[in-house]
Amino acid sequence: FEVNVFGLLKASKAVFSLLRALEGTVVNQSPVAGYYRMRQPFLKSCSASQISVMAINNTLQVELAPFDVKVVTLSTGNVDT
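Below the sequence we write its predicted structure tokens.
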């Protein structure tokens, strides 16, 4: 949670003014498993951080839209390796 959520919040705050000036695109990654693991036992911390990242991205989308900055969530799935 410290890295996934608080790290994202700190990084976003650090570059917020730069993003507004550049009108770029932010891409954050959050596994789609966060949606599906919410009812799985023993995965509550993992699911909570993934859902939090999605919520932060949704909020950033609204906050940065007036400055023509786009925020995209890259939701990856399972990959057999």
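DSSP finds three helices and two strands in the chain.
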